[in-house]
Amino acid sequence: MPRGLFITLEGLDGSGKTTQIKRLAAWLERHRLPHIVTRQPGGTAIGDRIRQILLDSRSTGLAPMAEMAMMFADRAQAIAEVIQPALEAGRIVLCDRFTDSTEAYQGGGRELGSQTVLELHRLLCGALQPDLTLLLLPGFEASLARARRRNHRVEQQTGQNEGRFEAEQDAFFRRVWQKYREIAAREPERVALIEGDLSIDEVHEQIVEAVSERLVLAELQAE
Ligand code: TYD
Q: Is 58 helix (H, G, I), strand (E, B) or coil?
C-alpha cells in the first residue's frame, strides 16, 4: 500500500492556521480523500498533558532546553501513536505544527539554534519529514494582535490562560518569523510559503493549489 501524505501547517500564533486546516479538511472530505487532523503540542492523551504544562502561563521558569525536550517528547509520542500508523494506512495526515515550529520558536525565538533542533529531530523522530509544509506568514503585527486577542477571549470564557508564548515580547516573535523565512529559503521544495495579508478565501485557494500539486506528484510516484 502506498504511504499516505504528510502535510504540516506552520506560522506565527494568529496566522490563521486553525481556520485553514478546517477548510482544507473539508476540501479533502468533499474529494473523499481519507485523512486525519492532529496538532502539536497535543494530539495524544500524553501529549495533551505535556501541552498543558507547555502553554499554561503559570509554568514560569521552564528552562529553554526543557521546553524543547518536551516539544520533542510530545512529537515522538504523536509519531508513534498517531502519525506513523495513519501514514502506513495510506491516509493524508494534516498536522498543525511540527518540527519547523521547534526550529522557529526554540531554535530562533529562544536562540537555541537550528543545529540542535535538527539533530534532536533526527534522533527522536526518525527524521520523519513532511511531504508538504504550508507556511502562513501574514503581516507580523496583525498576527500577533490576533493571537493576543484570542488568548484573552479564551481566558475570559474558560478561565484558562494558555498564553505562555503569546506573552513573549515582539523581539521573540521577530526571531521566530526570521527563522521561518530561513527554513522556507532552505527547503523551497517542501515549504509552500503563503505570505502577505490575503483573505481567508485567497489563502485557501493557494493551499488547495499546493496540496493538489503534491497529490498529483504522489500519484505519479506510485505508478
Ligand atoms: P497553540 O495554542 O496550538 O497555538 P497556535 O494555534 O498558534 O498553533 O499553541 C502552540 C504554541 O506552542 C505556539 O505558541 C507555538 C508553540 N510551539 C513551540 O514553541 N514549539 C513547538 O515545537 C511547537 C509545536 C509549538
A: coil
Q: What is the CA(219)–ligand 1 centre distance, in A?
A: 32
Look at ligand 1, atom 17, and give the residue with the nearest C-alpha. Answer: 101
Fold held by 6-222: Rossmann fold (3.40.50)
CA atoms within 13 A on the CB side of 162: 15
Q: State yes or no: pLDDT of 17 exceeds 60.
A: yes
pLDDT in tens, 178-223: 999 999 999 999 999 999 889 999 999 999 999 999 998 887 777 7
Three-state DSSP class for 80?
helix
- Does 173 sit in the ligand 1 pocket, CB within 6 Å? no
Answer whether residue 43 shows pLDDT above 70: yes
The residue whose C-alpha atom lies closest to atom 22 belonging to ligand 1 is 102
Atom 4 of ligand 1: nearest residue by CA position: 13
Any atom of ligand 1 within 6 Å of the Cβ of 102: yes
Q: What angle do CA 176, 7, 179 make, to 5 degrees?
A: 15
